[in-house]
Amino acid sequence: MVARDVLVEELVAGRSDALRDAAANSLIKIGALDMALRLSSHTDPEVRWRIAFSLREADQASLRTFQAGLRQQLDDTEATVRIAAAETLAQFQVEREQFIATAIESLASRDRGVRMRAKQLLVSTKPLEEQHLEKLR
Question: For residues 86 and 33, what is the distance between their CA atoms, to the nearest angstrom?
Answer without folding.
Answer: 19
